[in-house]
Amino acid sequence: MPTNAPSVAHTLSDVTTSGSTLRRFLHGLPGVDAVGLEARAASLGTRSIKTTAKAYAIDLAISMVDLTTLEGADTPGKVRALGAKAVLPDPTDRTTPTTAAVCVYPDMVAVAKQVVAGSGVKVASVATAFPAGRAALSVKLADVREAVAAGADEIDMVIDRGAFLAGDYLKVYDEIVAVKEACAASARLKVIFETGELSTYDNIRRASWLGMLAGADFIKTSTGKVAVNATPANTLLMLEAVRDFRAQTGIQVGVKPAGGIRTSKDAIKFLVLVNETAGQDWLDNHWFRFGASSLLNDLLMQRQKLATGRYSGPDYVTVD
């Protein structure tokens, strides 16, 4: 399913000079064949991965997890426990990879940073009035600057879905650009679309290109706070977008499905999507992540089963 942007006389930088040119570009992207998209995602999900390939995939998936806690009841103690688990996911087996990052609210960044110091595990912080994004730009930018000042390596921002759905694409673009500037050179930017609220695959494709045009380092499906989060189909669509964006611009952008990915089987299906759609260049935690809380436990249990031949069960892994 080709998704290349339409042939235009101007460069991609020109399409963001006004609301009308940006709208013309985004609505000129090819429409999504929903039936074909879902059929391909389902077909790729049937691939059988076994033995050494499965062991490799599980370790790769562990290394791609953004271990997340985003609750009003989060405490410093809970965040410390989460950070310790990210650094040493399985205390009985020190060959287990570390996770890619821990993801917390801005006020917990400093706590997480202390725990993971020197480990290579990143600290990601949600920002911009997560999860709804209903705040003035000045408030959103203050949220980002607080997280960056506390040591966040990555910022996960939410777009203004209301503005996007109203067709005010330039407002969304300008906000992403402003957040990117607030990240400075110290933090990579993940842009969350909340795909479950965008209603159509065409909107997800447009949001993907809009985020990349504005300078996103990652495009991310969801906050995990709505009914529909990451799905194979919407992730496949976003993988096609980053593949085609790199083909057109030479710039590589990461993808992060988040919410609803709970089992090793699910994670491996997503890795197959990455390999078969974007390619091996994205099979690295610098370019692909899972936003998850419970997924890591299942990955650890499956890893233990492959190593020992016995299924340990959930009592053998920590809850947080």
List keywords for this structure.
320 residues; globular; alpha/beta
Please specify the SSE layout and strand pairing:
Elements: H1 19-27, H2 34-44, H3 51-63, E1 65-68, H4 76-87, E2 101-104, H5 109-116, E3 122-127, H6 137-149, E4 154-158, H7 161-165, H8 169-183, E5 188-192, H9 201-213, E6 218-220, H10 232-249, E7 254-256, H11 264-277, E8 290-292, H12 295-308
Parallel strand pairs: 1-2, 1-8, 2-3, 3-4, 4-5, 5-6, 6-7
Helix pairs in contact: 2-10, 3-11, 3-12, 4-5, 6-8, 9-10, 10-11
Quick rundown:
The protein has 320 residues and is an alpha/beta fold. It is built from twelve helices and eight strands. It has helices at 19-27, 34-44, 51-63, 76-87, 109-116, 137-149, 161-165, 169-183, 201-213, 232-249, 264-277, 295-308, and strands at 65-68, 101-104, 122-127, 154-158, 188-192, 218-220, 254-256, 290-292.
Q: Give the integer mean of the pLDDT values.
A: 93
Q: How many helical elements?
A: 12
What summary fits the major beta sheet? 8 strands, parallel
Structural class estimated from helices and strands: alpha/beta
Number of strands: 8
Q: Indicate the percent of residues in helices.
A: 40-55%
Radius of gyration: 19 Å
Order of neighbouring strands in the sheet with most strands: 7-6-5-4-3-2-1-8
Overall 3D form: globular
Q: What is the N-to-C succession of helices and strands?
A: HHHEHEHEHEHHEHEHEHEH
- Percent strand: 5-15%
Contiguous low-pLDDT stretches (5 residues minimum) are 1-10
Q: Give the end-to-end Cα distance, rounded to a whole number of Å.
A: 40 Å
